Amino acid sequence: MYQNMQKHKELSIVSFLFLISACVPSKKFEELQVKYDLLNADYSELQTLKEYCDNQLALNTAKYNTLESEYEKAEQAYAELKNQYKKSKASYAILDQNYKELVIKNENTNNELAYRLQELDTLKSKLEGQLFANETELLAQDTKAKQLKEKLDLLAADLKEREHRVNELEYRLKMQERAVANLKNKLTESLKGYENSGITVVEKDGKIYVSLDNSLLFESGKIDIDKKGKIALLEVAESLRGLTDFDIMVEGHTDNQAMRSSTIKDNWDLSVLRATSVVRYLTTEGNISPLKIIPSGRSKYLPVNIEETKEAYAQNRRIEIILSPKLEQLMKILR
User: Which domain holds residue 50?
Assistant: First the structure.
């Protein structure tokens, strides 16, 4: 459309010039021709300038469209950034509030930590003092432990020595038990003929008791040994003569009936005098060393039968020869 308008202008100018040339003189026409040529040159220049401007306009239009598209994108991005900014601002406000609360809390925590630190310092000082006391106590205990170790070593040595003594004591006791058993068997064998005559041999509490009824040795109320009693005592003496590891105790026992004698005061006298008679006979006629034998009297105070019968009275009237193993060797071991 623009090109048609240009052509229409050119035709108008040509027509105008033709009309002028027909109406004006030749000189005038030449002047007009010159102006026309100038105008035509200006027109060509303007047309060239117009083409350049059209090209620049197209380029600028393209740039404008590009910039407009970029502006729309930028505006959209701005809107998004503005939205994000609002969100970030809200988040910042929350974070700022949280930060302020944390600061306050941190201050409280710091105060609490400072207080706790002070407590820990106090506790540390206390523990250091306790540690020092413990170290001092430990040194004391170590010294005490060394002393106890020395005592323990001494006790161990003593224990070993005691163990040796115990073993030796056990051996001695076994030998003593064997000696007691052998002696009992020897006495039982030597007195076998008197089993029904009032003589018994028993072992009790590690001792041997040879019990002789008074009816075998003495007449009623008498202290002199009769013939059959002397024979029995000689049998006993034969078995005891060579003893070296036993003490011999001769005990007289009576019943609880009162004495009726002008020469013997009471049952104490009777029990002791009868024991003395037996000891005297064993040492003189039985050849037992007086250093090995001891007489004693128990009177009525150690009965074997507490019934009030003639049989009980007869059982209680007796002489007991008590053979006790000597304890000197055992005592030496114990010491």
Answer: 1-57
